[in-house]
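Morning F.,

Quick status update on the modeling queue. The single chain you submitted on Monday has been processed. Sequence for confirmation:
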Amino acid sequence: PQATIYTNDNSSGDPGWYEFADLEPGVYYVSFNKGNYHHFSPKDQGINDAWDSDVDPVSGITPPTILTSGENDITWDAGLYNYASIGDYVWLDTNADGIQDNTEAGINGMQVTLFNSTGTIVSTTFTNTNLLTGKSGWYKFNNLIPGDYFIGFNNGLLYKLSPLNQGTNNAKDSDANPLTNLTTITSLISGEYDDTWDAGFYEYASIGDYVWEDKNANGIQEFGETGINGITVSLYNGAGTLLSTTTTNTNITNGLMGWYDFHNLVPGDYYIGFDNGTSYMFSPNDQGTNDALDSDADLTSGLTTTTTLLSGENDPTWDAGMYEFASLGDYVWLDKDADGIQEFGESGINNIEVNLYNAAGTIIETTFTQTNVATNKDGYYQFTNLLPGAYYVGFNKGNTYYFSPQDIGPSDGLDSDADPNSGLTIPTTLDSGENDLSWDAGIYEYASIGDYVWLDANANGIQSGSEYGINDIEVTLYNGAGFPLETKATAHNSLTNLDGWYEFTDLIPGVYYVSFDNTGYDKFSPKDQGGNDALDSDANLTTGNTIPTVLISGENDMSWDAGMYNYASLGDYVWIDANIDGIQDPSENGINGVQVSLFNGAGILKGTKYTTNDPITGQPGWYEFTNLVPGDYYVVFNPGSSYNISPKDQGTNNALDSDADLISG
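Structure tokens below.
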């Protein structure tokens, strides 16, 4: 060594200059001490020896050179440099906007590769936690010779690269091209640490869930409500652009219908549109407290609100409840027998007012029964386009009719559902699409029964013009079970001005019979005589009861009569007609022991007697036949061998003449 100096400023003030002066001509070389932090540049680069580095990078020594007398050789340079470094951050870009947000965290374990400008791999590392900051997702390539480099990020199978160069802050954006996973080339200079090369990664998101038939239209998924397949569902981005369309189908995992799903979505803002077609209506949205079970579709548009999907998010909470309108109704009929059961021959009644009530008891609609166009039957009503829910029906029977008994018989389709007092049905819950045609009302008018009790003078059981009614006869009404309901006495009819009338009114249609009390009279007339039921006697000869009859709605059956009579008697006197003039004289006496036979009109012998003393006057020759049913009779006198019969029908006094035929007696 000839001398040692340190680089310093030259006369122009530029640093890094050195010079060895006052040297004897001869052979010399220079040795540079770079210290611990610098590195020698490659030697002899380029074509300008005045600008290249002449130092061996390993030894720091230049080649020998010969200095001649007076020579000033200022071409022996040494280029020094410091290592550079590059790196920064790989983060989970939850909203996939390509900008690092304060809430977004780094991802450890991501492979990062450094390439030089020729595409040769220089180094590979993995993201890890920064020991100084404690944050995940950091990487760094150190000890790099200044020069051109680019970086590649390996996103694996799950992640996608965020869009690059978003925003205005280069330290916060993502620098990897999503198509190549590579950054652009950057030039590192001596000592530089370039910590701006970041990569945002995200996972695809998904959204979807369920379209169901909301049977009660309350907007909440409940047990027993099933999904609907074939519903069109559309996905829109936050700007309102239609991105995709699908239809609900059966979930292959759980076998349930009504499911849909949109996959492989870049995190961001989305909303969904449901098409309810022409049959369905949307349920009320955002009901209850469980967002996974409510309906999210707007009632009018079928659109949900906008939601932000984050990286990797699967949001299965976007549902739509749909329902069909329900209907309710059926039939009001004239229940002829008031038994509460629709039967053959009973017809519907038009123009009966029917009111529909909601669960709160408010009338929401009124209609009137009318003729069913399809069946051409009267008495039908229907309430349509009803929201599923609880309802009940009220029938207005007016002042003429009464309600049949409620819920009789095993068939709900044939019974009467109106409460007999209020005319209201019990509440029922209509499900989506339900057409409940089982709400009926039987109504009826009161019936009446009665007619006439008369003195049947000839006991033939048929009312005739000369026979008159009997007042104050007790009549009792019985139901079909034999239970007495009411008792009346026959009286004068102010309308017909005839005696012997009775009537039982305000009777529920059903089975009845009447019993007559014949106290004061010997017998009931024979029943069911002649061909006119309105003129015969209907009372049993022994009990006084009529047969049971069925009164139908509104019937006034005035055909139940009872004829009554007292027994008759016949007789008088057989006398010795001393002067044979056929006329009883005061001096002529009766004859005892004469046979007298009684025959009815048909010639049948009814009895035989012999004349004897009158029990009252004691006179002989009297006879009498008693307890005779009114009717036609004749008498045969047997004069025996001792007497002859006087001429008959003599004189003008029928009480004193002889009535027997001269020959036959």
